[in-house]
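Annotated sample (chain length 70).
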Amino acid sequence: MRQSRRMSLVEAAANVVIGYGIAVATQVVVFPFFGIRITLADDLTIGLVFAVVSILRSYALRRLFEVCRR
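Output written by the structure step:
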């Protein structure tokens, strides 16, 4: 069954939203161990940048594999 472009984007976004929460929580816990002290707002912003990149990456890979499947 073929996945539409829209559903590829929805799947990629859902994956990244969940990953965003995990990444920010991980940053809050791990950064202090490395002496990195930043605000929660900075953690959220850093996470957001990586989330956008991840959505684009996931979507592009999903579409590439869809083309290869045909």
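Annotation: Residues 5-69 form one domain.
Annotation: Residues 40-69 form the longest helix (30 residues).
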